[in-house]
Amino acid sequence: MKENLNGIYVIWLRDVRKFFRDKPRMIGATVQPALYLLILGNGLSRGFGGLNPHYGNTNPQYLHFIYPGIVAMTLLFTSVFSAVSIVWDREVGFLKEVMVAPISRWSVALGKTLGGSTVSMFQGCLMLVFAPLIHLRLPFMTILALIPAMFFISFTLTSMGIVIASRMKSMQGFTLITNFIMLPMFFLSGAMFPTQNLPPWMAFLTRVDPLSYGVEILRRLTLGEGAYPFFYSINLLALFGLVMLTFAIKGFVKTE
Predict the structure, then answer these.
(1) What does the pLDDT read at residue 52?
(2) CB atoms within 10 A of CB 125
(3) For the purposes of burial, counting CB atoms within 10 Å of the CB of 250, is it exposed (0-12), middle (13-18) or buried (19 or more)?
(4) Which of 15, 241, 4, 19 is nearest to 115 (CA)?
(5) C-alpha 118, offset from chain centre
(6) Which of 71, 104, 69, 89 is nearest to 174 (CA)?
(7) Which pLDDT does position 47 carry in this prediction?
(8) Calpha distance 230→24 (Å, rounded)
(9) What is the pLDDT of residue 57?
(10) pLDDT tens-digit profile of 24-51?
C-alpha cells in the first residue's frame, strides 16, 4: 500500500511541476477564456441589454452571468488536455516504464487524475483575478468555497479525459476526439445562456451534459442562484466522476 501511495504522489508531483515550469501553457490557457469573457462577453451583453433575462430577482449583468461559465470552460479544457501527457508518454515509451513499476495500475490512473485536477484547479484560480475587471465582487469566503469546488469539477473532467487518453494511440486522435466532445459540452452547459425555455431536444442535451452541473455549482457560489438545486448538481457530478474514474482505472488495467 505504501508503494502505491508513493506512486500516486510521484505521478501527481510530476504533472504539477510540469505545469509550473511551462509558462507559455499557463499564459495561453488563461488568455483564451479571458478573451471569451472580456471581448465576447462584452459584445453579447450589448445585445442582451446588459442583463440576464432569467435571473430576474437580482438582475446580474450578463458578464456576471457568464463568468462562472468561463471558469468552467477553463477547467474543462485544462482538465481534459492534461490527459494528453498519457498519449505522449505512450509514444515516447515513458508510460511503459511506469507500467512495469512495482505499483498497482489503479494508482497510476489515480495519480494522473489528481495531477490533472490540481493543475486545472490552479488554472481556474488564475481566472479569479478577472472578477474585479467585470465589477464582480467575490468575498473571501466565496473564494475559499470556489477552490474545492473547482478541484471537484476538475477531478470529474480529468477522469473523463483519462478515459479517452487511455484508449488513444496517437496525439492526433486524442485531439480530434476531445475537440469533438468538449465543444458541444461547453456550448450546451448553459455557460453562455440560460438553460430554461429551450427546445425539448436541446433541454435534454443540457441535462445530460455533466458540465452543466459544474457551471451550476460555480454559479451558485458566485451569484447565489442557479437553475438546479446545489446538492442535486453535486450529486450528479459526483456520480459521473465516479463512473469516469472507474473506466479510467479499467483503461489503465487493460493497457499493455
Answers:
(1) 47
(2) 16
(3) middle
(4) 15
(5) 11
(6) 89
(7) 63
(8) 35
(9) 38
(10) 777 777 787 888 887 877 777 766 654 4
Q: How far is CA 45 from CA 135, 152, 224, in A?
A: 14, 30, 20
Beta carbons within 10 angstroms of residue 108's beta carbon: 26
Contact 78, 29 (CB under 8 A): yes
**What's the CA gap between 237 and 227, in Å, rounded?**
15
Nearest to 227 by CA among 182, 184, 197: 197
Q: For CA atoms 210, 146, 45, 74, give the dihedral sign.
A: negative
In which residue are the cell numbers 472507474 written? 246
Domain boundaries, the chain: 2-254
Distance of CA 202 to the CA centre of its chain: 22
As a whole number of angstroms, the distance between CA 172 and CA 176 comes to: 6
Mean pLDDT across the chain: 82
Report residue 196 CA to chain centroid gap. Answer: 23
Half-sphere exposure of 188 (CA within 13 A, CB side): 17
Which residue has cell 468561463?
70
- Asked if 195 and 219 count as a contact pair (C-beta separation under 8 A), the reply is no
What is this structure's pTM? 0.86
